[in-house]
Amino acid sequence: MKPAHPGWLLLLGTVVALAAPKPDAPDAYLNVPAAGNIVAVPISTPGDVFLPPPIIDIPQDKAGDMIKLGRLIFTDTPRYARRFTGNALSCSNCHLSEGRKPGAAPLWAAWGMYPMPSAQPGEVWSFESRIQGCFRYSQNGQGPQLDSPEMTALVAYAQWLSTGAPARTELAGRGMFQQETLAGRALTSASKPVYSASHGQKIYQFQCAVCHGADGLGVMRKDNSYQFPPLWGQASYGGGSALAQVSKLALFVRANMPLGRGGSLSETEANDVAAYILSKPRPPDPRTGWRQRWREARR
Ligand code: HEC
Ligand code: HEC
Questions:
Q1: Domain count across the chain
Q2: Stretch (H or E) spanning 22
Q3: By CB atoms within 10 Å of each CB, which of 72, 109, 110, 285 scores lowest?
Q4: Does some domain include residue 45?
Q5: How many Å lie between the centroid of ligand 1 and the Cα of residue 6?
Q6: CATH code, domain carrying 230
Q7: Given 161, 189, 219, which residue is the final one in a domain?
Q8: CA 132/CA 145 separation, integer angstroms
């Protein structure tokens, strides 16, 4: 018999891939790219920065199941941590490439730094408290309890991603706000910048609207996960998120957006587009909302 034409094999492969089991069982996810994950994983050249282990290295045991669950929660938060989320964002919409991308607060660079002093003098942040903060301010939900399976799984996933990374060491690529581009240009926040939201609007229309929509509301898939997350409006992250500050949003955008072309905007362009985005409405910071004020009044 004549060997099958490669085109047929490709077609067959596609059919098999489409007919693959629905991703209910964590195992089914193993070879499937994460929701909205356009940037390939891993994104960095080995040697440049720490390289977290590949997915196939997740151990096939109970501990491995917890890591897999953590990965699912991280990449499809509204589905796998439903009771704690208030919007449809996933952690990986901001912590890009499943929490692996340098310059987008990768988990492997964060894990070994905690506990660490918080912004409040004399107070300490635990890794878990940072996760709770993101649930509260970026996911507009509630921080999961320390002993909840969601928290255990997320911590297990972060710990696994940092396998082999030195602890208590500021690794290249840590955080979202002081990064270098791949071309090596330093990204720093401008001192006393003057923002122009109207200039930002033009940049938004040319550079961002194609994915995030002219209305900034993003694009949702049929399964209610975001193909492109919203940048403003009631479905976006709240006013308490660090990304609700112009200077910080600008640094995130400059390092990571437009997706796949991080480092292409100038400092002014990034500042202005951030100012434009933050001139639009979004959910309030829960610490300053009416609920908080009501609670404080009753104390
Ligand atoms: C090619 C499509 C594309 C373009 C163009 C693009 N983005 Fe994004 N952006 C994405 C995707 C996809 C994500 C979520 C990443 C993920 O889930 O892997 C994202 C995430 C973000 C986030 C964090 C998530 C959130 O909810 O806020 C911000 C902020 C952002 N983009 C801003 C911008 C800005 C500003 C521009 C224009 C300078 C831009 N993006 C251009 C695709 C794009
Ligand atoms: C809307 C964007 C957004 C979403 C969604 C989000 N985060 Fe974050 N996260 C941030 C920002 C911004 C920071 C602060 C980064 C910094 O300080 O450099 C952060 C910081 C963190 C840190 C500390 C990182 C470090 O380097 O110390 C952890 C851990 C974390 N987030 C976990 C999560 C988890 C888990 C989820 C999902 C439940 C999540 N985040 C969802 C934006 C987001």
A1: 2
A2: none
A3: 285
A4: yes
A5: 36
A6: 1.10.760.10
A7: 161
A8: 8
CA distance 127 to 8: 49
Cis peptide before 115 (omega within 30 of 0): yes
User: Do 82 and 90 meet the contact criterion of CB atoms below 8 Å apart?
Assistant: no
In a domain, 234, yes or no: yes
> Do 152 and 239 have their domain in common?
no
For all residues of the chain together, what is the average pLDDT? 84
Domain match, 153 and 243 both: no
Q: Tell which atom from ligand 2 comes closest to the C-alpha of 241.
A: 12
**What is the reported pTM?**
0.84
Mean pLDDT of 69-93: 97
Q: How far apart are CA 260 and CA 42, in angstroms?
A: 13
Buried b (16+ CB within 10 A) or exposed e, 191-204: eebebbbebbbebb
Residue with more model confidence, 24 or 45 = 45
Average pLDDT (52-80) is 97
Question: Is 174's C-beta closer than 6 angstroms to any atom of ligand 2?
Answer: yes
Closest C-alpha among 278, 260, 248 to residue 207: 260
89: which DSSP letter? -
The minimum-distance atom of ligand 2 relative to the CA of 177 is 18
